[in-house]
Amino acid sequence: MAVFVYAENINGVYKKAAFEAVSYAKTIAAQSGDSVTAVSINPTDSSDLLYKYGAEKVINIKDEGLKNFSAKAYAQAMNEVAADGNIVVFPHTTDASSVAPMLAVMKDFSLITNVLEAPESVSPFQVKRRAFSGKGYMHAKAESNGVIVTVSQNAFGVKENPASGSEEVRNLTVANEDTKVLSHEQSSGKLDLKEAEIVVSAGRGMKGPENWGMIEDLAATLGAATACSKPVSDIGWRPHSEHVGQTGKAISPNLYIAVGISGAIQHLAGVNSSKTIVVINSDPEAPFFKSADYGVVGDAFQVVPALNEKIKALKG
Ligand SMILES: Cc1cc2nc3c(=O)[nH]c(=O)nc-3n(C[C@H](O)[C@H](O)[C@H](O)COP(=O)(O)OP(=O)(O)OC[C@H]3O[C@@H](n4cnc5c(N)ncnc54)[C@H](O)[C@@H]3O)c2cc1C
Question: Residue 211: CB within 6 Å of ligand 1?
Fold first, then answer.
């Protein structure tokens, strides 16, 4: 049997999260003795990119009607194509994590979201997952024969495992009448915030939008994406696409640098799964320091440019 995996693309181009999901599916397949079949909707990228991470088969769904994203229509397409698999893997992206529960209902499968590690067992399926907005972990066990998992981004990692794969094109015509795209905000940064391995984030301590140059400079030096606290995007200093936290994006980069952010619980809810947190704040009592791996008590306007120069010198 095949372990199916949803290989998400954006405008036809595979996301890094798709490679991570395929890597995860390959690990499950090795445990269960199955093969890996990746499914993608209207991709333009080559299937070779998925074979590299262990997909033995790639099914490319071609359907003009699925040009606009709809969780229901995408779940229907997955249900049609992944009809005979007992395990379906999704990346825990915004889109995929709304498709996965719909597919779980259609297939009457268990759903385990935000998984962090390879499963402890595949039959029954048991795995460690993130819980309580990243404040804790739990070990979840699927109660039905079939299971759908979403893989927390940057948790498992992208692992090369080259396979000699084959490709199949499946022409579908899934009804997609429920969705009308009103607007589509594209992140202004060069890097996708949810996929970035390093994020430089700033808050109200920056005093105004005119001071963001140093944040962008540091991000450029580190090859990082930029993010911000909620009030900063609310008052229009930065685009909403950069807002992280309970009501914004939840991210889990390897390194999160927080500059002039107090560390309110609603902010932490979106970033405390980061592997390493560095906090730069002028107030030694700022709550963020309690969650930090490294803290710098100091004025951001002095610390950030100095840090940038040091990193540039080290890199140079
Ligand atoms: C229902 C609800 C949902 C929310 N969702 C979110 C969310 O998703 N994301 C989010 O971020 N917030 C969220 N909030 C808001 C949250 O409670 C905080 O108000 C917010 O995170 C504070 O933003 P901040 O840290 O940028 O600003 P502040 O709290 O004003 O903190 C600014 C920090 O900058 C420091 N500072 C000042 N000057 C300097 C300097 N020169 N150098 C270095 N440091 C300096 C200060 O010491 C301070 O710690 C939510 C609130 C509610 C009620």
Answer: no
- 80 C-alpha to center of ligand 1: Å? 46
Residues in the chain: 316
Q: How much distance in Å is there from the Cα of 92 to the middle of ligand 1?
A: 26
Superfamily grouping for domain 2-171: HUPs (3.40.50.620)
**What is the rounded distance in angstroms from the CA atom of residue 138 to the CA atom of residue 131?**
6
Average pLDDT over residues 237-259: 95
Q: Where are the domains of the chain?
A: 2-171, 198-315
By most ligand atoms within 8 Å of CB, the mutation choice from 200, 226, 230, 291 for ligand 1 is 230
Same fold, 2-171 and 198-315: yes
The alpha carbon of 232 and the centre of ligand 1 are apart by a number of angstroms equal to: 8
Q: Distances from the Cα of 51 to the Cαs of 8, 54, 56, 156, 209, in angstroms?
A: 15, 5, 6, 18, 44
Helices (H), the chain: 16-32, 48-51, 71-81, 96-107, 213-222, 230-234, 265-271, 300-315
For the Cβ of 201 lying below 6 angstroms from any atom of ligand 1, the answer is: no
Least Cα distance to 257 among 308, 211, 315 occurs for 308
What is the tens place of the pLDDT at every residue in 151-197? 999 999 999 999 999 999 999 999 887 777 776 665 555 678 988 99
> Which superfamily does CATH assign the domain made up of 198-315 to?
TPP-binding domain (3.40.50.1220)
pTM of the model: 0.82
